[in-house]
Design a protein that fits this description.
single chain, about 210 residues, mainly alpha, about 0% strand, elongated, transmembrane helix, ChloroindolylP_hydrolase, 5-bromo-4-chloroindolyl phosphate hydrolysis family protein
Length: about 210
Amino acid sequence: MKVVRIIKKILAIWATGAVAVPVSYFGFSTTMIQSLGISIGVMVVMSLFFIMSSARRHYQNPYREEIAYVRHQVKEAKKQLRTIGSYRFKIRSVHMWTELSKLYKVGKSIIEMVEKEPARYKDVQPFFTNYLQSTVTVIERYMFLLSKPTKSIEVKESLHEAEDMLRGLSGKYEHLLTNALSQDKLTLDVELKVLKQAFEEEQPYIPTATNRTK
């Protein structure tokens, strides 16, 4: 996307420079050399304008591209999570329904957390880059094998392996979420400790002799 924007800007600069030659030559009766000079000047000015605009945007929000990337990841993750959610209602096994529901619930919590606070993406990056897509792939394979009218020993073994894999992924989901939330707990514990210490250090009010006389 960034490369496309750069190419568009370069084309715009060259197009403007090319147009400047006949405009200055025929419109203002300049010589060809002067027209070429004006064209080069126009391209230089436009280049400086684009550079300054880009620098200003970067200065205003240096993490703009990173945030855009995280939002894209969240958007794609929501699609995959909907796929997991839809499979919950296509499976007959109560055990697997519970497992898929657990994956869906924890996955939703992770996505919502990152959506609200993009900076947390690094804490749960494996969920977006590996675990979620692997989950969808395993579920789709599991449902495909489950739909077979006859199940050989090999198919049954594959089904058991898929179930074990989903349980393992569920554990990884929870591990990532727990680690991410543990930072919140640590921060809260520190704040409570500081607040408690501040309360303990407060001197109790002792009436003075003057106050008692009054």
